[in-house]
Amino acid sequence: MDLGIAGKWALVCGGSKGLGWGCAQALASEGVNVVLTARDGVRLEQAANALRAVAPRAEVRTAVGDITTPEGRRAALDAAPRVDILINNAGGPPAGDMRAWARDDWIRALDANMLAPIALIRETVDAMAERNYGRVINITSSAVKAPIAALGLSNGARTGLTGFVAGLARQPALAGRNVTFNNLLPGTFDTDRLRANLAVMAERAQQPLDDYTGMRRRAIPTQRFGTPDEFGALCAFLCSVHAGYITGQNLLLDGGAYPGTF
Ligand code: NAP
């Protein structure tokens, strides 16, 4: 299927690895020009070169910076001639107990997982509407649908973004101009972040890492973790010309782990 988006410009936040990288790769493979952002400039350039190698049709640019800061967002926006596709993504907040979280911890979580995406949306969507095409994808978490107690900072901040997006997506001034907003909710995906988390959790559970990882895999109906490629493929479809009638949705990608009917 031709997704019909070759030549568009995408800003992929947190695009140097993991789920952001999966989205960038899928979009660039469709001929979408991509701006990748991340804080570590060396790894970002490596990712950009890898992308150029697999997707020679696409122009790939980079913007080093922290997307939770105004400067990081300015650098990201300035690197693209325009933003047709916005993939909002950043690291998730740490696990813990609410008794240990001070106001600053909450502000950091809100900045990364709610306010930075909203700031980028604010900067880009009116121009998308003028051009009669726009796609905003927010990478959130399955924890929005089924909260994970230890991830209270994430549950709170991402649910705030989800509520905001639900209202915005339904504004005729945007939806009626072919600007769509959807959230992708990853369950357990095989990325550096997951591997780091598993190492910590295995140690806490006093289990060998392989045993603990196997137990986590077996707890998922598909008996495996998801891959960034699978994640990117759905992202690219939602950004396609074929997905203009899908907006304001929360799409769970979790190998069937969520046990409910809906
Ligand atoms: P990852 O492999 O650690 O990749 C994160 C990417 O974001 C990297 O490119 C990282 O590069 C960049 N990044 C992080 N913080 C940033 C910041 N402040 N400014 C700019 N770039 C930043 O993580 P992932 O597994 O792909 O996860 C992506 C998102 O999905 C996270 O919010 C995570 O909590 C959420 N999620 C993931 C899973 C999963 O199973 N993997 C499940 C649920 C939710 P730099 O470090 O160089 O900046």
From TrEMBL:
Pfam families, per the entry: adh_short_C2 (PF13561)
Matches recorded under SUPFAM superfamilies: NAD(P)-binding Rossmann-fold domains (SSF51735)
Superkingdom of the source species: Bacteria
InterPro entries xref list: NAD(P)-bd_dom_sf, SDR, SDR_fam
Family: Belongs to the short-chain dehydrogenases/reductases (SDR) family.
Protein name: 3-oxoacyl-ACP reductase
Organism: Bordetella genomosp. 5
